[in-house]
Amino acid sequence: METKNATWLTEFVLTGLSYQLEWQIPLFLVFLVIHLITIVGNLGLIALICNDPHLHTPMYLFLGSLAFMDAWISSTVTPKMLVNFFATNQMISLSECMLQFFSFAFSATTECFLLAAMAYDRYVAICKPLLYPVIMTDRLCIRLLVALFVCGLIHPAFHLLFLLRLTFCNSNIIHHFYCDIMLLFKISCTDPSINVLMVFISSGSIQVFTIMTVLVSYTLVLFTILKRKSAQGIRKAFSTCGAHLLSVSLYYGPLLFMYVCPGSAQADDQDMMDSLFYTVIIPLLNPIIYSLRNRKVIDSLTKLLKRSV
């Protein structure tokens, strides 16, 4: 009888960030500025790469794709968060919630594979420079990108199918600023154990595979660099790889806590801060990191500004 009389929920409330009322306008302005800079920075980097023929190489093809995914993940999460700062009704429908999760998971998964592909590209460029044009052909890069985006779509689609088996009848309060799959499990009135296990296995496997690819690639790069006697060659190699290593370090930290350790005893506020760093701050930092530490990007931007002036 309880099951028959239960009301299935189709709308949820996103409580958003916890803050005092006087911080409402300052926080809105801060996140609005961050979002605008993120979109302009990442799309500007893509335009710069497309505009300069010298940047039409595998390394910058992957970098442009990374900038696209950063703009995507920011656009998935931030606009809804900004609207909820002043909205009297913070409701989101079940279909919108699942669409937001799918969009977020697609960008997060694809970015993991992109970082691994960029590490492999740097390994070939530094460890096998003479074979680099033969190995990293345009055809191979296009195939890699297509495979990465297909895997990025399959992974969230798999979880979305498992998510459809859940019902929600107890609570419609999501203590977050976007629809996170782990919080949907918490408010489900259907046992989500299978879903949690699938998230742990699939997300863990993807992260282990991509992290190992990065670690192995850069371990081999390090050995190759140390064998070189040229100080200039060593500086150039570290300069090329430094930005990518920094981006990888910033990217995987919050992600590991969010999805590979779902049973950790983190407070909700701490989990929200990790998510905020992952979805808002990293997309802002990536174009800055890659632009400031990449001589070719700086030179290309300088030439473009000179032509404009």
Automatic annotation (TrEMBL):
Subcellular location: Cell membrane
Regions crossing the membrane: 25-48, 60-78, 98-120, 140-162, 206-226, 238-260, 275-292
Entry GO terms, CC: plasma membrane
Residue span, G-protein coupled receptors family 1 profile domain: 41-290
Record-stated family: Belongs to the G-protein coupled receptor 1 family.
Job of this protein: Putative odorant or sperm cell receptor.
The protein's name in its UniProt record: Olfactory receptor
GO molecular function terms attached to this record: G protein-coupled receptor activity; odorant binding; olfactory receptor activity
Membrane topology: Multi-pass membrane protein
Entry-linked PROSITE patterns: G_PROTEIN_RECEP_F1_1, G_PROTEIN_RECEP_F1_2
Keywords of the record: Cell membrane, G-protein coupled receptor, Membrane, Olfaction, Receptor, Sensory transduction, Transducer, Transmembrane, Transmembrane helix
Lineage: superkingdom: Eukaryota
